[in-house]
Prior knowledge:
Layout: E1 14-20, E2 23-28, E3 31-37, H1 46-80, H2 91-106
Antiparallel strand pairs: 1-2, 2-3
Helix pairs in contact: 1-2
Amino acid sequence: xxxxxxxxxxxxxxxxxxxxxxxxxxxxxxxxxxxxxxxxxxxxxxxxxxxxxxxxxxxxxxxxxxxxxxxxxxxxxxxxxxxxxxxxxxxxxxxxxxxxxxxxxxxxxx
Length: 110
């Protein structure tokens, strides 16, 4: 039997903190989750630094975004009452599909 493990991430509030040598650090409490290199090609300028900070902010927001996506799917399911939508080109269904795909990607299922 082929078992798929659900992706688990470090719980807690992730923060984009600190900088050293062009790297920005993503922390969960005192645990370093990741670092974002804003000068990957050795070029350090304002645009590259801004991009590195923006990437770090996005990284730090990932757990909150995942929780929000899961909540959106719960709300859509509550609205439909567990029934399947039959509306052609339904914007809600398109949103639900995109949110589901984002969750799958975050959980390592895509």
